[in-house]
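Section 3.1: Structural characterization of target chains.
Under the original work plan, the team committed to producing a structural model for every single-chain target entering the pipeline before any wet-lab resources were allocated. The record below documents one such target. The sequence was received from the expression subgroup and is listed exactly as submitted; it comprises 383 residues.
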Amino acid sequence: MKLKLRRSTVEALVFLALLLTVFCLLGWKMGGGNMLKTIMNTAHDLLLNTVFYLMGITVLTGALSKLMSEFGVVNLLERLLRPLMKPLYNLPGVAALGGVMTFLSDNPAIIALSKDKKFSSYFKKYQLISLTNFGTAFGMGFVVIITMVGYGEFTGALVGLFGAFCGSVISTRLMQRSCLKAYPKLEAPVCPEGPIEEEEPVVDESEEKEDRSIFMRFLNAILDGGKNGVDLGLQIIPGVLIITTAVIMITFGAGPGGVYDGSSSQGVPILPWLAEKIHWVFEWLFGFTHMELIAFPMTALGAVGASLGLLPTFHMAGILDGNAIAVFTAIGMCWSGYLSTHTAMLDSLGYRYAISKALGAHTVAGLCAGIIAHFVYLAISLI
């Protein structure tokens, strides 16, 4: 009991010391009152100008994805992508459905499929574990692509999509290889009896759909999809307001004339200062000429919605170009907040011991995705 009490006391003291250190350093540079005003104004500005913008996108993309599901486009995509699963990802063809669903929604969609006995019966154990990496590489992909295209860089967004696709292959393959090497027993199939055959439904869903008018199916789809988009938009609010505000505070500097006045998007440029020490790495690998851009991939580690919240600030600063869009799209899609989702996803599947391997494989894959996107965009620019 005393040991637990001492440990909690030490944790509290260390936390308070770190918190006070950060706030004192920022307050010393910015001024205490200006620092607090900047935090509040930045969060307020992000809520009004970024969160609601992103929520508008999630509502529209949610409605569109529901329409695609209602009228068979999702099934068509799944059938077209099935032949690619084995040679590229070493996964059964049904895994294509997981990729399409996470692209249209978010990372956790792959877990709902993985827990389905009929779906998981097609996999070996190591393949089922690698679905966390495969699905995460496409998480919120539709929202990311539409957001990037909104800045007028369609080519950059497409190049970034290609980079994310390459990253997904690298992540899935690395995860499978590391799991098999460490745990050879994972070679066993999830279902020793083989894939479970689909049972005939009691009610013919196709007949049910035909009984409803096309207009009602269309209306129900867009309304239900829109509601799902609202839920997704609400879920990204904490990440955008908290994480993005914190990142902005250590990324951008003073206002015009070098004066701190409590306006939004001001701070102490700690992150660019650190990145400047090894600026040649980021310039060569990602083509970043402004070290403030490092904030996007750093934020995407925890939440891709929060990283998207940085785009308006970059755009206003005039540092958001086609190359940055390509790299951001690739890293944002591939990582898509994997540090905050991988642990929960693998834990829910019952493979907690593979968390470190999943995180390591995805870290490498995200960096590779950004590097590939940069050099492909550079090649296209030279043509």
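Confidence is low (pLDDT under 50) at residues 198-208.
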